């Protein structure tokens, strides 16, 4: 089975005069379809850099990144944009919904960006599945934190991506709502054979994922 996401010996460093500052050190990871992985670690450990490289937002200094078997490290920025729109769904720490768009329009906008037509029913089905059918015409300001994150999950799934990347999705939620959101994400990954990587500080939800990695000082290791 081809891994949806594969990083091989990825290094990221910056030059500061004669000094080389390493943010990621020989990071390797593979996430298969239907697998939900979490990456945990302290602030400054390299989590954000790792997620940016995995999501085709930042080039590694060394090493390779594969998405569904395709090596993407050397692709152009234009090709990266296409990959992000069509193959990767992002869920951000504070949902990052567009404040002047309704719940339904958040998802419609994703279709517009990807130049996909006839997606109205898919948007409705996703929102209904995530228990938001009665909130379609609401704006983000009228939603609870948990509802906003559920909209963010629906938006991430709108273009049927192969890979979902979640950056601290429970950070602004209480423990109950945070667990609900991660449970929904897990269920989507397993039911629809997606691959997902969640960067988190929240160890209370780690029992919901399939694989846990620890990152510290730029070194990634699988936890037992």
Automatic annotation (TrEMBL):
Membrane-protein topology: Peripheral membrane protein
Cleaved signal peptide residues: none
Record's GO cellular component terms: membrane protein complex; plasma membrane
Residue runs in coiled coils: none
GO molecular function term, any single one: transmembrane transporter activity
GO biological process: amino acid transport
Predominant localisation class: membrane
Keywords: Amino-acid transport, ATP-binding, Cell membrane, Membrane, Nucleotide-binding, Transport
Subcellular location(s) of the protein: Cell membrane
Keyword Membrane: yes
Family statement: Belongs to the ABC transporter superfamily. HrtA family.
Record text on subunit structure and interactions: The complex is composed of two ATP-binding proteins (HrtA), two transmembrane proteins (HrtB) and a solute-binding protein.
Functional summary from the UniProt entry: Part of the ABC transporter complex hrt involved in hemin import. Responsible for energy coupling to the transport system.
Name of the molecule in the record: Putative hemin import ATP-binding protein HrtA
Species of origin: Loigolactobacillus backii
């Amino acid at each position: 089975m081809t891994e949806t996401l594969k990083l091989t010996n990825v290094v990221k460093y910056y030059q500061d005069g004669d000094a080389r500052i390493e943010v990621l050190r020989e990071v390797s990871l593979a996430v298969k379809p239907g697998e939900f992985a979490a990456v945990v670690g302290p602030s400054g450990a390299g989590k954000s850099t790792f997620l940016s490289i995995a999501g085709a937002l930042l080039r590694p200094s060394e090493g390779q990144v594969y998405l569904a078997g395709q090596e993407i490290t050397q692709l152009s920025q234009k090709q990266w944009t296409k990959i992000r729109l069509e193959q990767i769904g992002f869920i951000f720490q504070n949902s990052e919904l567009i404040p002047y768009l309704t719940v339904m329009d958040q998802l419609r906008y994703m279709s517009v960006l990807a130049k996909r037509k006839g997606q109205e029913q898919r948007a409705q089905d996703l929102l209904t599945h995530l228990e938001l059918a009665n909130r379609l015409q609401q704006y983000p300001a009228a939603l609870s934190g948990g509802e906003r994150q559920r909209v963010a999950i629906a938006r991430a799934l709108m273009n049927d991506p192969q890979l979902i990347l979640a950056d601290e999705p429970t950070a602004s939620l209480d423990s109950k709502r945070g667990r609900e959101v991660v449970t929904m994400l897990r269920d989507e990954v397993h039911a629809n054979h997606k691959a997902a990587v969640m960067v988190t500080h929240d160890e209370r939800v780690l029992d919901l994922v399939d694989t846990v990695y620890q990152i510290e000082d730029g070194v990634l290791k699988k936890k037992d």
